[in-house]
Amino acid sequence: MKYTDIHSHIIPYIDDGADDIETSIEMAEIAVSEGIESIVCTPHAISGYDELISEANEQREELQRRLDFRGIPLRLYQGFEVYVGEAFLDYEYPERLAMNGGTHILIETDFERIPACMEEVLYLLRITGLTPILAHPERYLYLKKDIAACEVWKSGGMLFQINAGSLTGQYGGTAQKTARKLLKKGYADFIGTDAHSAGRRAPLIKGGLAECGKRFGQSMVSRLLENNKSLTE
């Protein structure tokens, strides 16, 4: 079975992900060995959006050329992991940060507290016609303590992406339990690797899918993977 990864920092030279293009290529080889056939590249977007978009597209296209030249069967699509902050509220073209030029946008927040501007950002996304996907909710301290906010956001149309590594315990026991709780409640919509390197944070997905299937059944795995794939179609 082939998979789509919707959260990856595989593009080099952009953020805290791949340090160089050789690391990116190594990450691509690992991803392919895991059964991943396509990746939505999601470098962190905190400010300076137009410059970031231009640089990210340039680096992604160069990486795709290198992968094609080496015969590595992996397709790359553009997206961003957008930080919920005041800078985003001032940006005129939030649709430019959408995943694969579509209607979904991957967002992240501060790890310790809900941003003061969260509701303003969600309103901006709604009137722009964008559906937010919250990256790795199981890793945020404020949701580990109480996932009640997820219920409110879910009813407002927000979607959630859990990390495969969270299900295998990579981010600790509490994140693992929260990820399981999100799956049990039916809140989790997507799964991603959140890969940053070819080492400790490599693009590994099979282990997380296996844990998901063991606890919640293959139908849950299939739903997550189908949702992932829909973002590149």
How is the topology of this model organized?
Layout: E1 3-8, H1 21-33, E2 36-41, E3 44-45, H2 49-70, E4 75-78, E5 81-83, H3 86-89, E6 104-108, H4 118-128, E7 131-135, H5 141-145, H6 148-155, E8 159-163, H7 164-167, H8 173-184, E9 190-192, H9 206-216, H10 218-230
Parallel strand pairs: 1-2, 2-4, 3-5, 5-6, 6-7, 7-8, 8-9
Summarize the structure.
The protein is of the alpha/beta class.
Notes on the structure:
A six-stranded parallel sheet has the order 3-5-6-7-8-9. A three-stranded parallel sheet has the order 1-2-4. Helix 9 (206-216) crosses helix 10 (218-230). The chain has helices at residues 21-33, 49-70, 86-89, 118-128, 141-145, 148-155, 164-167, 173-184, 206-216, 218-230; strands spanning 3-8, 36-41, 44-45, 75-78, 81-83, 104-108, 131-135, 159-163, 190-192. The radius of gyration is 17 Å and the shape is globular. It is an alpha/beta fold and 233 residues long. Helices cover 44% and strands 17% of the residues. This is protein-tyrosine-phosphatase. One of its GO terms (molecular function) is manganese ion binding. Keywords: Hydrolase, Protein phosphatase.
